[in-house]
Amino acid sequence: MSQVVGEYRNAIAGDWVESESGARFEDRNPATGELIATFPRSTAADADRAVAAAHEAYQSWRLVPAPKRAEILFRVAEILRDDKRELTELMTREMGKVVAEAGGDVQEGIDMTYYMAGEGRRMFGQTVPAEMPNKFAMSVRQPMGVVAVITPFNFPMAIPTWKLMPALVTGNTAVFKPAEDTPLLAAKLMEIFERAGLPAGVVNVVNGPGEVVGQRLLEHPDVKVISFTGSKEVGIHVATTAARTLKRVHLELGGKNAIIVMDDANLENAAEGILWSAFGTSGQRCTAASRVIVHERVYGRLAAILVERAEGLRIGDGLDPSVQIGPLINAAALEKVHRYTGIGRDEGATILTGGEPVTGAGEGYFYRPTIFGDVERDMRVATEEIFGPATSLIRCRDLDDAIAISNRVEYGLSSAIYTDRIDDAFRAIRDLDTGITYINAGTIGAEIQLPFGGTKYTGNGHREAGQAALDTYTEWKSVYVDYSGRLQRAQIDNQ
Ligand code: UN1
User: Fold this and answer.
1) pLDDT tens across 438-470, in order?
2) Ligand 1: which residue has its CA nearest to atom 6?
3) Cα of 482 from ligand 1 centre, angstroms
4) DSSP string computed for 54-72
5) pLDDT for position 359
6) Of 135, 209, 260, 492, which has the fewest CB atoms closer than 10 Å, so is most exposed?
């Protein structure tokens, strides 16, 4: 495969430009340590230039008919589809997830782009009866202006498309600040926007640290919407900072998602769902199953299946198609996961398998799939987000107990239950306090045409994906047209 070591720039107002700082940071492969590219370490002044470009582009982009904006997005989707293989390989090199999953990430981006392009000819408002004769009442979605899109490393193509595509189709312009661990896929997406004919300044990319570039976007008075995916701690900072300028803030934060396994469940099927949800993407999904709440009658059998299968998973460089688990994103992530192994051990959990970095794996940040057994519901490994290949087995007595354990944590993104009892399944759907619930499937793999997001500290009530995403990027305008030819007084003339 061709080497892509290169020097990338920011994209502002249709040009690829250096940061005024002149400084750069490195983008390295977490499986090998290989240097892939360098990017500008941008400043607040660079962010200001990007916002100014987006603000200017907004004046004309908002007036482009939505179906015409959508035509550009359809072209973006087609280029993404044509370039899927190349983007997939670059993603594996840049952030480590195995090629099959990287392909899934790109596919999710393609699907979202087509879906949102379709909104260009829908974007429904309401028409409702007016109170008085010869009067018409309706509502339309209006764009809001400049949107700041701040994204994490774990879905370098999917998550940016979840935010950018609904923002663009509804007539907003954007400043995109990708994670410092995955700037390359962001640059590739920007190149694709250009190839598809997106006008200059409609999307701008500024690379660099969140504390500098992101911070400026949170404060800038011309930024009207912030869409942020990341940790709870940073999310709270985003919301409180952006509140000073009354921005709309969409937050997609952590998870401590549980899979419940009832005593009637098909354990083979459940084990497959657990392994995929706990260890896919090396556990670096906010939807990852980091808890398994298992009925005490089947605990021993399920634990045995899980341990045996986890130990059979192949760990290594995700470019090798036989590998099932890639590296963690960086040294800090590896250190954090290992710290939690120590915390779990100190709390009295049993380490059934894993619990250590893979030795002799060269420069890569590889960690063994880790299963904690005998976990009590309030242990730190059962309540805090680890964001790595680790899951906790917790015993439960019955469905009520399982739901209570599941709901104990401060997050509420995804949940799952394995059972063949339809009554239990529907009670779980009603009572699990999460934004997403799966029946007889794991906690990962949300499809793009339904709302995605969570309750409690997972977010602030907004959703992305599906038509719900449009609510983040639009403001309602209610319109009354009076064609009576005289003054009609609402609430007075209709009595
Ligand atoms: C995330 O981890 O932030 O449902 C997103 C899933 C994927 C998206 C995960 N479609 O697991």
Assistant:
1) 999 999 999 999 999 999 999 999 999 999 999
2) 445
3) 47
4) HHHHHHHHTTS-HHHHHHH
5) 82
6) 492
